[in-house]
Design goal:
Length: about 250
């Protein structure tokens, strides 16, 4: 009975103070953990043990609350895709709302990460249409924010600085053709490849890249700008196309 009354009094004190102390009767925060033996040559262990999981377990979690902290102790399971796209080594990770973000041991500096690597395995017929989205339906790396049907990547919570690189081979049918490849990012855009009046355009693949500072909810896509001079739906085409997006700064 005495123990029950003591427990009830303790529960009431937690409810009133809205602060919990472990090994302290005067907590200074919501949760205040004080070392049982803060000084001296004592061999007993003090500290906080974070849940340890393997990569497969981490990428299988759903409905994860932003700021959840884990320690990944094994990367032999699972793959570095979707929410686990950054899990390429053992260590501490926190959930940033979209993926498990690595906590760097090098002065807690930001670690750049590839959030998308997508490609097209077929030829995309463009024809005379302008501003038509290029599609990259096969995503080898996808943090979960790229729509393989529309070819649009949506920037997740937190935003950041993104480097976008596109590579493609273009086939045209007339020396009068002129066209360009444009990266659209939020309200910004960058023409990375431009070809004017060239019969064969570039039968070999060409690439270009651009960097953008974007906010959460902004979208990234790639489009063909123009096609003129006798283009047809079967001859003016894009093939061997790839797109990579890397978050280079928070």
């Amino acid at each position: 009975m005495k123990k029950f009354i003591s427990f009830m009094l303790l529960a009431v004190s937690f409810s009133i103070s809205a602060q919990v102390g472990i090994d302290t009767t005067t907590p200074a925060a919501t949760l205040d953990i004080t070392a049982k033996t803060p000084t001296g040559a004592v061999s007993t262990v003090d500290g906080l043990l974070i849940p340890r999981v393997d990569r497969l377990r981490a990428q299988s979690m759903t409905g994860v609350t932003t700021s959840t902290l884990i320690y990944v102790d094994n990367i032999a399971t699972g793959t570095a895709t979707l929410t686990a796209v950054q899990i390429d080594s053992t260590g501490f990770y926190f959930f940033n709302g979209s993926i498990w973000q690595k906590i760097s041991t090098a002065n807690n500096t930001f670690v750049p990460a590839v959030v998308l690597s997508a490609r097209s395995t077929t030829t995309q017929n463009v024809g005379p249409a302008a501003n038509l989205n290029m599609l990259f339906p096969t995503a080898d790396i996808n943090d979960g924010n790229y729509n393989t049907t529309t070819g649009v990547y949506t920037v997740p919570a937190g935003g950041g600085t993104y480097l976008v690189t596109v590579k493609a081979k273009h086939d045209v049918n007339s020396a009068a053709n002129s066209f360009g490849v444009r990266i659209n990012a939020g309200t910004q855009s960058s023409n990375i490849i431009q070809v004017n009046s060239q019969a064969d355009a570039f039968p070999d693949s060409r690439s270009g890249s651009a960097t953008f500072r974007l906010a959460a909810g902004d979208t990234i896509s790639v489009s063909i700008q123009t096609c003129s001079g006798g283009c047809t739906t079967t001859i003016y085409a894009v093939s061997e196309a790839t797109m990579a997006i890397q978050k280079v700064a928070p």
